[in-house]
Structures are given as structure tokens and as C-alpha cells.
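Progress against Task 2.4 (sequence-to-structure conversion) is shown through the following example record, which the project officer requested during the mid-term review.
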Amino acid sequence: MAMRHSGRAMVFASLVYFVTAVAAEAHPHVFVVAKSEFVYATDGSVKAVRHTWTFDEMFSAFATQGLDKDNDGKLTREELAELAKVNVTSLKEFDYFSVMKGGDKPMAFDEPVDYWLEADANKVLTLHFTLPVKAGAPKGALTLDIYDPTYFVAFSLVEAQPVTLKDAPAGCSAEVRRPDSAATGTTNLSESFFNSLNAASNYGSQFANRISVRCK
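C-alpha cells generated for the chain above:
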């Protein structure tokens, strides 16, 4: 999601006609439906999180303009490879919209691996990427909050099986807490307010989707 600072300017430029078509206070501008998989090591600690993010049709349409190089009406992984790289690179500044804790201890991620974009028959984009957990990941209970601190992007979790636990120890289970529907309604704050937010802002945390894992 190349959409912050230089990347953000690029997206605003490409989306200008519909961004300016909505009310000035309308926010967010991009919508993502997400699901996540926690991958466990043999010692019972989480070693990686695999994200799958599907973008809305409008953003997908603009992001893929001119990428169908052979004009066959389809978008291959190869045609989308550079866009996928731009996406995951730009996410680093925002900690990949993923805030993870083991108990009260923040957990850091290494740079994404195994990333790619795919497009369905309607050219709707889905980004796949894996976030390796840095050494020292604790075992047991953990939480993962998924949100954009600037609320330029709105996340929701898929209804069916939004989280899976791969090779988790026996007795581990996951719960999902979605943001309050009332809190995610149209805001009366101005566009200039949102443009003033940055990676250090915490405004978007109120719209976070939280995945909690408990192990008996």
C-alpha cells in the first residue's frame, strides 16, 4: 500500500477523481478485508504471522492501471511483482499495520518475506506476505492489533475463519474482537486533520481489529 508521504502522494494523485468526489470529511479512502495465520516453532513460540489482505475494487482498479503488459485482460503475479514490492516496502514505516504483544511485551517483526500480489477475475487485488517474528518471541498468550494509525486504510476481518494457528501447541485457541461498529461510522473530522496524522499517530487504534491467542 504505497500511500504515505511520497507513496501517499502517488496514491492521492492516482485516486484524485474519486477522493475529491466524496465529502471532504469522508474517511477512510481504502478498505481491506484481512485474515491472518500464526505460524509456530517447535518450541511453542510464534515464529511468523502470515497476512492475506484483499483490497476494495476501486483501489485495485487504480493501483493496477497499465500493469496488464500483454493486454490479455488478466494480471499475473509477474505483472504485479513490482507493485507487491512497493506495497511491502512502504508498509515498513507503519510497522506493517500490525501491533503484536506477548503478554505486555511488544514483539518486533523482521522485514516481510514470501510476498506476492494476485488478482481475481475482476482484478481485485489480494496481498500475501509473511512477517517473521524477531528472536526472543515469548510463548503463551499474545495479541495482534491490525489497524492504520492514520485511518487512511480501514481494516476488517473476514467473517469465516479470520485467524488460523499453524503448528500451535495443544490447548491454544484464538479469539477475535472487531471494532465497535458505532466507532467506525463517518467522522465529522476534516480531511486536513487526517492529513496531519503520521506513523506515530494513534488515532486509528480505536478502529483496531484484535486477535487474542490463549494457550492452556
